[in-house]
Design brief:
Elements: E1 2-6, H1 11-22, E2 26-31, H2 38-44, E3 48-51, E4 64-67, H3 76-84, E5 88-90, H4 91-100, E6 104-109, H5 114-127, E7 133-135, E8 147-148, E9 155-159, E10 164-166, E11 169-172, E12 181-184, H6 198-209, E13 217-221, H7 225-232, E14 238-242, E15 248-254, E16 257-262, E17 265-271, H8 277-292, H9 297-304, E18 315-320, E19 323-328, H10 333-347, E20 352-356, H11 361-365, H12 372-375, E21 381-385, H13 398-401, E22 409-412, H14 415-425, E23 431-435, H15 443-452
Parallel strand pairs: 1-2, 1-4, 2-3, 4-5, 6-9, 6-12, 7-9, 12-13, 13-14, 19-23, 20-21, 20-23, 21-22
Antiparallel strand pairs: 7-8, 10-11, 15-16, 16-17, 18-19
Helix pairs in contact: 5-8, 5-9, 6-7, 8-9, 14-15
């Protein structure tokens, strides 16, 4: 079958294209701003890419158009497909019907930690010899790719996003996946552009729970109030809650190691390069999900000891003249706070310079802005970047919202000026954490270059 994918360079749709290709389909696609690394990865797999959404693409005569959720009414190719009455489907629905049917799906949902936890879980299963299929919104070094599919393999790890499915299907993506093992990592208000309030997201999570069979497993932290409300509406499967001393929980040994316990029983110790209590939680639920498909805790702990993290999740981009630069995807106050607190536990009194680009729709709208001062409190210096106009313009003033940070705060609207300010103030032993869910204008490369330039 010939599939033409609209919005193919997005993380999810690009992974979907690779899976469809592995399933034996002919795949073509289009997007605006076709660029590496996704464009290169797709072209290496023999997938032809077209720049833009011109209606002339109907001449390709695919058997089916797969529509990404970045496209909406008014898009010229969408309008042409509708006018011609041609068959189309959303990416999540196609994946659920054509690929996930018959697989043991292990889905990782939640506001934070989906990519990291999915990567941990896929890594554990791979190290256990199960060679899982997966579709993840990032690349873990050990997995090398963000998506993989082999029809003869029966386990499928998927990052289960609560964002909507398509312009014609406003349900969350994850309702199409029908997991047998479901991790509910956490739940907070996010995606203010499509959800009016937290209750609306809780409803979508409740719909997800309704799709898990009775013999399936649901994993959730005991302390999360929003998830407690979701579970109270009905959980029809086996349930394990984590984080209580009487059950499955972790115990920090130091900044880079922790014990795994079930009650008072010590199962083993994880020693790795990741920081923060949030990553301990991610590891614990990945271990329990793996146990549900036959991997022992001892095997999981051994695998986690070799887990090298995920790109763009506190990824070290370089150390120049004693200054270490990290790239982190943090795009929500809770993620920002846990990331910085985890680094603080590791580096002690050494300075942390937090560089924030509020880029997600929720952050640009200012829905979470009032929580940012507390989230950034661990940092010694805070640099906030926001454009004054255009698509990435902020709907709030950092100098007002973050005023309580006092002299620790600098606000910039020009990238080059921000880079020079960072380079001039950084000193040996500093840790610069760049936090954005976008490309941030290539700031990491520019900053490392500026740090390497001798100062006058």
């Amino acid at each position: 079958m010939h599939l033409h994918i609209l919005g193919i360079c997005g993380t999810f749709m690009g992974g979907l294209a690779l899976i469809a290709r592995s399933a034996g389909h002919r795949v073509t696609g289009c997007d605006s701003g076709v660029y590496p690394p996704m464009s290169t990865q797709l072209q290496e797999q023999g997938i032809d890419l077209i720049e833009g959404f011109d209606p002339s693409q109907l001449a390709l005569k695919p058997d089916l158009f797969i529509v990404g959720n970045a496209l909406s009414r008014g898009n010229p190719l969408i309008e042409a497909i509708l006018e011609a009455g041609l068959p189309y489907i959303s990416g999540p629905q196609w994946l659920g019907q054509e690929i996930l049917q018959g697989q043991h799906v292990l889905a990782v949902a939640g506001t934070h930690g989906k990519t990291t936890t999915s990567s941990m879980l896929a890594w554990i299963l791979q190290q256990a010899g199960l060679e899982p299929n997966f579709l993840i919104g990032g690349v873990a070094p050990g997995l090398e790719v963000s998506a993989r599919y082999q029809s003869q393999r029966s386990f499928f790890v998927i990052e289960a996003d609560e964002y909507d499915t398509a312009f014609f299907d406003k349900r969350s993506k994850f309702v199409h996946y029908r997991p047998r093992t479901a991790i509910l990592n956490n739940l907070e208000y996010d995606h203010a552009d499509i959800f009016p309030d937290l209750a609306a997201i809780e409803t979508q999570f409740h719909h997800l729970l309704r799709t898990v069979p009775r013999s399936g497993l649901v994993l959730a932290p005991a302390q999360d109030q929003a998830l407690a409300r979701v579970l109270a509406r009905g959980c029809y499967s086996n349930l394990i809650t984590t984080g209580q001393a009487t059950g499955w929980h972790t115990q920090s040994v130091d900044a880079l190691s922790f014990n795994v316990l079930n009650g008072t029983q010590l199962l083993g110790q994880v020693q790795w390069s990741l920081t923060g209590a949030h990553n301990q939680h991610n590891a614990l639920v990945a271990l329990l999900a793996a146990e549900h498909v036959g991997v022992s805790p001892a095997q999981s702990i051994a695998a986690l000891n070799q887990f090298a993290g995920v790109k763009r999740r506190m990824e070290t981009r370089g150390t120049i003249n004693g200054v270490t630069v990290y790239d982190d995807f943090a795009h929500h106050p809770t993620a920002i706070q846990t990331t910085l607190e985890g680094l603080r536990a590791k580096v002690g009194a050494e300075r942390i310079l937090a560089v924030l680009e509020p880029r997600s729709n929720t952050m640009k709208l200012g829905t979470m802005a009032a929580r940012l001062p507390a989230a950034l409190a661990t940092a010694d210096l805070v640099f906030c970047f926001g454009q004054n106009e255009g698509k990435q313009a902020l709907g709030w003033d950092p100098t007002v919202v973050l005023a309580s940070l006092g002299t620790r705060l600098q606000a910039h609207d020009q990238l080059d000026a921000l880079v020079q300010a960072l380079a001039s103030q950084a000193r040996s032993g500093d840790h610069i954490v760049v936090m954005s869910n976008g490309g941030f204008g290539g700031i990491h490369t520019k900053l490392l270059k500026a740090l390497a330039t001798p100062r006058a």
